[in-house]
Amino acid sequence: xxxxxxxxxxxxxxxxxxxxxxxxxxxxxxxxxxxxxxxxxxxxxxxxxxxxxxxxxxxxxxxxxxxxxxxxxxxxxxxxxxxxxxxxxxxxxxxxxxxxxxxxxxxxxxxxxxxxxxxxxxxxxxxxxxxxxxxxxxxxxxxxxxxxxxxxxxxxxxxxxxxxxxxxxxxxxxxxxxxxxxxxxxxxxxxxxxxxxxxxxxxxxxxxxxxxxxxxxxxxxxxxxxxxxxxxxxxxxxxxxxxxxxxxxxxxxxxxxxxxxxxxxxxxxxxxxxxxxxxxxxxxxxxxxxxxxxxxxxxxxxxxxxxxxxxxxxxxxxxxxxxxxxxxxxxxxxxxxxxxxxxxxxxxxxxxxxxxxxxxxxxxxxxxxxxxxxxxxxxxxxxxxxxxxxxxxxxxxxxxxxxxxxxxxxxxxxxxxxxxxxxxxxxxxxxxxxxxxxxxxxxxxxxxxxxxxxxxxxxxxxxxxxxxxxxxxxxxxxxxxxxxxxxxxxxxxxxxxxxxx
Length: 501
Prior knowledge:
alpha/beta
């Protein structure tokens, strides 16, 4: 007897999958037959039978997608066809690998010379002379190994012959009095963890191979000290983002490691809340996904919040009349993409209409420069498209508990927020920018799994806010952190990462 959970042969697994799929089809046909009989006995009509069977087929399609399909929001065929209609075909680039320009790398010239024994002409036996400016040149990209060194700072002392004055040259700036590790070392650790997503234990092993013996607690001490110095910049960045008229908000799970017993369940419910403006993003890590947490994250904000249909955002708007909700068309689209295999004809029409909304948006330049054109196009074209979507939803008959019924109900439940973008060109059509801003956090979570303490969540939120905003501004996160730390140590105003100033 074949045990599938232990089987590794691809061909056997493929045949098993085919048998399971056929068996699923046979069972669905049998259930459909029994459903017809049941509905007929209850006095139902043919339309109710059709809807019930469609719901069963939808459930089978979802199960098959989970077992055999890839996860994607892309619609095969329809999206490709429309993409070809909208964008002109570009000539294909030549295949193959070629040298890539590296403008950021310094160039080091290395001179190669003949040995003395080889500097003899094989024709006449004479000595070969150096040919001035005669070289054959080639390039290669090399790596110079990172090195950890002990810098011994000797602060020169000075004294006057009268013995009335003794002066000592100043030493380097340090994170704290008596600090053994340099500022650049601490920034290197922070960048490795929050930009390159390397857990501290992994950094410890890497440093050990490079000659430095250090513990993860020591590395944590360095980044925690940097976080204390940059706390004013983090708070100023939160204030900056919340002062914007339109922000996007989204959340994703986080874990507080080390929780045991009754606290273990609570530790898994921690959330990273992202609040994003076009040029900045901030994160706060809270212990829940509740309405109270949402209100704390948006405390002091007055304006439009772009979000999904999660109930906590509705509670924020109800509690604070200065907050208006705008909802995301990408979330609505996903609801219909997930059920398109079960309801192909119904979903095809609404998905095509939603795509038309995005095509209108693509005609406008991003940012405030495109607001005037965006407002005009939304009035002239998008408004009519939204009207057609509403008419489609009203005329489509479906069972409330079917996938199609639930998708339409989701759209109807947030309709007022979905159409809000028509009246304000500053409001985006979706919340995709905020979701993209969470990518770094999610990759970090997958690598170091979360935080070990509440202070760890605060430090993570601070660093992610500063480095992800620096990326949005086109800055090197490492260079920004260095500039900010030195400004803090000198008592100067700490620059925000939103500009290169």
